[in-house]
Amino acid sequence: MTDDGAPAADETPAPPAQYVIRSATVEDAVGIAETHVASWRAAYRGLLPEELLDGLSVERRTTQWQEDIRSADLDVHIAADPAGHVGGFIAGGRSRDGDATGTVGELMAIYVRPQLWSLGIGGRLHSAGVAGLATRFEQATLWVLEGNARSRAFYERQGWRPDGTVKRHRRRRRSPRGPLPPDAERLRPQPVARGGSAPDALRVQGPARVRGTGCDVADMSDKTPARRRRGCEVVGRSGPVQGPALSV
Question: Are 184 and 166 in contact (CB under 8 A)?
């Protein structure tokens, strides 16, 4: 099961300008899964256990993405080349955090094939994903692994800022799906004013901390709500700071 004809890691892909951003279909699931696995292995090497990265399965992720796209619970967009091959994707939906209300969305995943990094495709996907969230939610969050400097810099360029919430592992153990990933930090814009032609003013909730035993961290790609919340308790928050607008 492969996205037949998609460029391999050592091949030159189509020029970035030829990639079209569009809504994903079930037929795109294989390409999304291949992009997902390739990007994880490139981006998280040294951040996540080798065992976890080597054990990633395109087949399992394909099934997962097929189910997610069919359910319509997630808003999924892809960057497709002229032949329809997936070069990157973004997914958003309702926040899975235990302290979130129905007005809070979450940017759950944004990945681009490694050979297409730093060519502007990620920024175009981000714009499409944020626009989708803005039609359904008043606020948005995302999670980023601590130590993932590349992703953190990308989000900061797009205007995201941390709200001080961190998920940490208090109990060093193995989960049924492999070694636990490292700590993660939450970035959270919150709109506070609307109207006029200028971008909405936004506010990010200030420092908070999370405590708990076995507080599972999952990065943006993990779509299992229980892993987001298990054993975690938000115990403090204060002070607004300026953040990006939930609009494009």
Answer: yes
- Domain encompassing residue 30: 16-242
Give the separation between CA 105 and CA 109, rounded to whole angstroms. Answer: 12
Token pair 């502007």: residue: 120
Give the DSSP H or E segment for 92: strand 86-94
The pLDDT tens digits of the residues spanning 97-138 come to: 998 999 999 999 999 999 999 999 999 999 999 999 999 999
Residue 117, classed as helix, strand or coil, is: coil
Write out pLDDT tens, residues 129-170.
999 999 999 999 999 988 899 999 999 999 999 988 887 754
- Report yes or no: 144 and 107 within 8 Å, Cβ to Cβ: no
The closest alpha carbon to 35, from 69, 8, 73, belongs to 8
Distance CA 170, CA 211 (A): 8
For residue 48, the domain's CATH number is: 3.40.630.30
The amino acid that residue 149 corresponds to is A
Q: How many structural domains are present in the chain?
A: 1
Q: 196-233: buried (b, 16+ CB within 10 Å) or exposed (e) per residue?
A: eeeebebbbbeebebebeebbbbbbbbbeeebbbeebe
Residue 63 lies in a domain: yes
Q: Answer yes or no: is 1 within a domain.
A: no
Q: For residue 105, is it within any domain? A: yes
For tokens 């997630």, the residue is 74
Helix ranges (H only) for the chain are: 29-43, 50-54, 58-71, 121-134, 149-157, 225-229
Residue 191 placed within a domain: yes
